[in-house]
Every structure is written in C-alpha cells, then in structure tokens.
Write a structure and sequence with these properties.
Oligomer: single chain
Order of helices and strands: HEHHHEHEHEHEHHEH
Structural class: alpha/beta
Largest sheet: 6 strands, parallel
Number of strands: 6
Shape: globular
Length: 235
C-alpha cells in the first residue's frame, strides 16, 4: 500500500508538538521489515525461502523496507524539530539464543536495517533498536549499523544479564531495560524490585535507561512493584 494514503501527517505533527520539550521525545515507527517478511510467507516457510530461494526472500524484504522508508520519511518530515529519538526494530531472539544465525541476518536483514537507521540519523534522531530475546551475538553488529540504544535488556534471556552486557559493551552503546518482567516484577516483592533497580543504577550510572525488560508494564505486574521501580529510580 501507499503509506501516504494512511499516515496522517497533520496528526503526527500535532502530537509531536504537544509533548513538553523538557522531556526526551521519542517516536515509535517499528519498521519491522524482517518480521513482516516472515509474516508474508509464514515464519517457518520464510526462513526456508531465505536459505533455498534467497532472491525471492530479498525481493520481498526489500519491497517491505521501501514501504517503511517512504512511511518514515512522511513521519520525519511532519515531526521535524519536535522529536529527539525514534524506536525501530525486529525480534531476532528467543529466550535461549538467536532465531536466525548471524550470517543470514547480515546478508538478508541488516542491509535494510542500515537504510532505516541512516534515514533516521539524517533527521538528527537518536536510534533505539528493539529486539526481544537473547541477541548477544549481534549487539556489535547493531552498534556498527549506528544504533544508539539497544532495547530491551530481556534480563532472563541467555547472556543478556546486565553485568555481562556491561563487561562486553561498556562505552560502545546504551541499553534500555534490565528490570526483569518475566519473573521479578510479576512474582517478586517491592523490596526485591528496589534492590534490582539499585544494582542496575550502580552498573550503568549513565548508560542505561531503567525500564521493564519488555515494551510495556503488563497486566500481571502488581502495582506495588511498579511503584517500587519508580521510587528506587528517584531515590
């Protein structure tokens, strides 16, 4: 489809202008070209096509990337001067590792990712890149592609614990997340949440945006634990 027929540029501009400029203002464009390519075939078939008919997979993912580049240009032009950052992303990880080997991502997915990042950078925006799961083996790739912040730290995923990320990537990039939303925020006590947030603040005094290790605070998280998270941040 033509994104110009569906993206309301005036509403985008109005919403961006309404945000208090004292805050960091982030747009969310997702631009999930890999996930949409998987959805076009069905994921299992998509990954088979990637390996057995790479020309077909490349044609599809490139077409989807071009759609997002056009949609994003409309959004960035409409909100120019009113945003500081944009969040884009694709899910590459499972709980235990990558869903796709790094070499395939570099060959078929990251060229589009690079275009999307470069486009956002051309508008002076910081780029926050989302991927759930264990993505440790490709964090360096994302940094080289120009990502400013990795979102989220899925705290219980393999190799994604905060001390390990600090040891390998301190000074290279920033992270967002780290407060485990799979177990701690759901089943822990406010005291345990407070201790985890305090630990994270000590590990990443300037290089971490403290947040749940997911896109959102979900309905299974007790309000007392949400309150504990914010109070620990402010203490």
């Amino acid at each position: 489809p033509d994104p110009a027929l569906y993206l309301d540029v005036e509403e985008s501009r109005r919403l961006a202008q309404s945000v208090n400029p004292e805050y960091i203002r982030m747009g969310v464009m997702w631009s999930a070209h890999f996930q949409d390519a998987c959805a076009a075939f069905g994921m299992e078939k998509a990954l088979m096509v990637m390996l057995m008919n790479p020309e077909m997979f490349t044609a599809v993912i490139d077409r989807i990337t071009d759609f997002y580049l056009k949609a994003n240009e409309l959004f960035y032009e409409a909100t120019k001067g009113y945003l500081d950052a944009v969040l884009i992303g694709n899910d590459f990880g499972s709980q235990c590792g990558l869903m796709v080997d790094p070499e395939s991502l570099r060959a078929y997915v990251f060229p589009g990712t690079k275009k999307l990042i470069d486009q956002a950078k051309s508008y002076g925006l910081k780029v926050i890149h989302h991927s759930c799961g264990s993505i440790f083996p490709i964090i360096d790739d994302l940094v080289e592609l120009g990502v400013d912040v990795i979102h989220p730290i899925q705290a219980l995923a393999q190799d994604m614990d905060a001390p390990n990320l600090k040891a390998h990537f301190e000074g290279k990039t920033a992270f967002c997340g780290g407060v485990d939303a799979q177990h701690l925020l759901v089943n822990g006590t406010p005291e345990e949440v407070n201790r985890k947030v305090t630990e994270l603040k000590g590990l990443f005094p300037t290089g971490l945006i403290i947040s749940p290790s997911h896109e959102a605070i979900l309905q299974d998280i007790p309000p007392a634990n949400i309150k504990a998270l914010f109070e620990a941040l402010k203490s």
